[in-house]
Structure formats: C-alpha cells, structure tokens
UniProtKB/TrEMBL annotation:
Similarity section: Belongs to the thioesterase family.
Record's catalysed reaction(s): (9Z)-octadecenoyl-[ACP] + H2O = (9Z)-octadecenoate + holo-[ACP] + H(+)
The keyword Metal-binding is assigned to this record: no
Domain Thioesterase: residue ranges: 17-242
InterPro entries reported in the protein's UniProt record: AB_hydrolase_fold (IPR029058), TEII (IPR012223), Thioesterase (IPR001031)
Lineage: Eukaryota, Metazoa, Chordata, Craniata, Vertebrata
Protein name per its UniProtKB record: S-acyl fatty acid synthase thioesterase, medium chain
Highest taxon of the lineage: Eukaryota
A molecular-function term among this protein's GO annotations: fatty acyl-[ACP] hydrolase activity
GO BP, sorted A to Z: medium-chain fatty acid biosynthetic process
C-alpha cells in the first residue's frame, strides 16, 4: 500500500479515514501533511499516482480506468474496516468520482461524504465543451498555466523545473480530457456531497454534481482562484469544514 498511499500519521485508532486525490500533475505531500493537523479521529491517506515522487520511474496512467483499478485494488481491504470520505481537487475531483462509482457498483461500498473541489461534473456541458489543454505546445501550455495561477512564476521560468513537472501535468490532463461519463439516470450514492471552489476561478458547473447523490448537496465558495486551497487561511477553513462534517457523519455511523 505504501507505493500508492502517503500517510504521514498512522492512526489505527482513528474513527474514519479521509482519502485525498491530487490535482493534475500533483503529488501526495500537500494532502499527506493534513494528517499532521487534523483531529486524531481522522486518518489521512493521500493517493500517489505513477510517474511522480517515489513512483517517478513508472509510466503515467493512460486512462481513468487504470487509476481506479489500482486505487480500489489497494484500498479495498482498508475501506471495509471503517467509515471513509473522499476529497479531490480539479483532476482529483474526477478521480474521486470515478473511484466512488466503482466502489458502489462493484463492492456496494459508499463513502460517508465526498468533497469535490474546483471542477465541473464530467457529464456537464461546461466540462464537455471545455478546451483541451494537454495537446498544446509546451510554450502555450506554460502561458495557460501562468494564467490560472497556483504555480509560482519563478518555477515556470525555470526550464529544469518545467522539465520535471510538465510531463506529469500533461499526462493527467490527457486522462481527464478523455474521460467520458454519462449523467447518471438516478443517483448512485446516498451520502452527502460538498462542492467547493474559488470565487475567482473560471465558472464550474458545480450544481451538476447533485445528480450523483440522493443525500445532502452543498456548495461552498472560498476566496481565491483555482488553487484557493493552497492559501493557508483557506486551508484552515477547509480542514475545519471537513472535520466538522466527518465528526458529524461518525455520529450518524455509530
């Protein structure tokens, strides 16, 4: 499991687990450190995808199914142990959704909460009509990256750094841009779903996510653009929000 999951704080006594999925090109460290600051009742598992960090020599995933199969295969035994929630930002919102769907469909397992951040639902018109970025030349791709923010300009100006992170980012975008999912005929989940976004990000069709659950559906907007969650103030708000909802769901579960 260590190959696929980063866990900074092992908490066998934790009441629930939070499984976090990275944004495009991202690693697991940003989320793994949440385990150091969240309540001791929550254990954080941060998903580590092929082609980065300790898996840098592995080929990138070619499609969403590869990611889902690996994550579900590794996590299934532990997800049966205790309640779990999913959190994903941008590309991670899609992988969270795809993993949740597979867990429900094939194993009748459901999270106690899903937090989907910075992304339109995969079947929404906004998403379907979004321009493809993974096919851009490196120069045009870097220009687009500088526009959406979240990557320090000094990194984008450093050819050696760009050479390191650009392939993973493009590979992840290729996966998500070719991921197709029809709108569910009926909700396949009953757990609460919370959608989050930065107020200054490009508009996402967050309401479309409501179709996946018959449970509570909430939208929460925070100050900032696409990478609003990197701001320390927003991160505190976000972690407090997640903790409150997980502790509430723990009571319901008991």
């Amino acid at each position: 499991m260590e190959k696929v999951i980063s866990c900074f704080q092992s908490r066998p006594e934790a009441v629930s687990r939070l499984i976090c999925f990275p944004w495009a090109g991202g690693g697991s460290i940003h989320y793994a450190r949440w385990g150091n600051v969240l309540s001791s009742s929550i254990e954080v598992f941060a998903v580590k995808l092929p082609g980065r960090e300790s898996r840098s020599k592995e080929p990138f995933s070619q499609n969403m199914q590869q990611i889902v199969d690996e994550v579900v295969g590794v996590l299934l035994p532990v997800l049966k142990e205790k309640p779990f929630a999913l959190f994903g930002h941008s590309f991670g919102a899609f992988t969270s959704f795809a993993v949740a769907e597979a867990l429900k469909k094939h194993h009748n397992l459901e999270p106690v909460h899903i937090f989907l951040s910075g992304a339109s639902a995969p079947y929404s018109e906004t998403r379907i009509n979004a321009p493809k970025r993974s096919d851009l030349s490196d120069d045009d791709f870097l220009k687009w990256l500088s526009l959406i923010g979240g990557t320090p300009p000094e990194l984008l100006a450093n050819p050696e750094v760009v050479k390191l992170f650009l392939p993973a980012l493009k590979a992840d975008l290729h996966v998500v841009e070719n991921y197709r999912r029809d709108k569910p005929d009926s909700p396949f989940l009953s757990c609460p779903v919370t959608c989050l976004d930065g107020k200054d990000d490009i508009p996402h069709d967050l309401q479309a996510w409501k179709s996946i659950t018959s449970g509570d559906f909430t939208v929460k907007m925070l100050e900032g653009s696409h990478f609003y969650l990197k701001d320390s103030g927003n991160e505190r708000i976000l972690l407090d929000f997640i903790t409150k909802h997980l502790e509430t769901s723990e009571m319901d579960y008991l």
